[in-house]
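Second attempt. The first submission of Peptidase C45 had a stray character pasted in from the spreadsheet, which I only caught after the job came back as garbage. Lesson logged: always re-copy from the clean sequence file. Corrected sequence (340 aa) follows.
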Amino acid sequence: MPYKPVHIAGTRRETGQALGKLARPLMSAYLEQNATWHALRPWRGHAYLQELAGHVQEALPEIWEEFEGLAEGLRMPADDLLLWHCRGDLLHKSADGCTSVALQSSGGKRWIAHNEDGDPYLYGRCHVVDVRPAGAPGYVSFYYPGSLPGHTFGASRAGVVQTINNLRIRARRAGVPRMFLARAVLDCTSLDQAADLLAHMPRAGGFHHTLGAAGDDRLLSVEATPGACSVETVARRYGHANHAIHQGTQDVPQLITESSRARQNRIDTLVDTWNEQSGEAELVGALHDCEGPLPILRRAPDDPDEENTLATAVFELDDDHVTLRIYDRKPKATQEIVVA
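This time the job returned cleanly.
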C-alpha cells in the first residue's frame, strides 16, 4: 500500500481525538482477534495500572492529554486503552518484533532503517500520520490503530529520528510506560534531549531505540529497561533485533525468542559486509533478507512469535534534512517524505 500520510493538527487533545477517529472503525475487530489483548484481561482494574498512569500524568502531562483525546476519539474506556498501552510493561511476551539497522556512510550521510513487525492482522491496515500538535515540532510516524505514535518508526519535524525494537524484559518497575516514553521522544528537538529523556525518566518497560538527528554526526543505540539504560554510539554499522545485547544491559532478565536470536545472528553477518560505499540498497537488502527458517523479512503465517513485517522504513539523514522512504516488502519504495 502507498502509505500516503494522513495530516492531523490541533491541540494535544484534538490530535489525540483525530488519531482515535482514524482507528475507530478497526479497533474492536483488531483487539478481538489479538492474543495479547486477551492475555491482558487479568490486569483490568489492577491498582498498578493507576500507578503507571500517575507517572505519565506527572512527567508527561501533554502526552497524557493526547492519550485522553485518543480514548475519546476511539470511544473506548480510558482504563482499557491504558491497559493496551501498557501491554509491553505488563507482559513478558508481547507480539511486537522488529529489526533495525544503522550505517555511517561516506559523504556525511547517515542511515537508519527498520522492519516494523507486528500482528499480521494489521498488514495493509496501518497508516502513516503527519501530526502537528500545538506547541511541539510535530512528527511523521507509522501508526498502529489505537496506539500513540512513536513506538514504531518516526521522526520529528525538528529532525530527530527514532525506530523502536521490542525488548521482552522479565522485570517490572513503576515508572512511565514505554509507549508513552517513545511518543515523548518525537517531541524532542535534539539527539541529546532524546537520549537524556530516556536515561533519566523512570521506566516501566523495555525498548531498544535507534536514534539519529539531522545536523548531528552521531547515531545512537539505546537499550532502556526498567532497571538500566545503556547508550552506545554506532561507530560505522549496526543491527539490532528484539533482545538486549549491550554490555550494560545484556544481563537484565529477558525473554529471547528463537526468531530474535536468529535475526540478530543474521543481521550481524550482513552488516559486517557493508563498507563506506554502502547505502540504502544494502540496508533494504538486509531487512528484506529471507535466508533461514526464521528470516529477517517475516511473512510466514505460522511465525512463532505471531508477527509479520508490516512495512520497511529507511531514514536518510544529512546536515540539514531527514528523508523517509517506506517499502512494502518490495525493492522499490512506495512513499517518500521529507520530514525535516
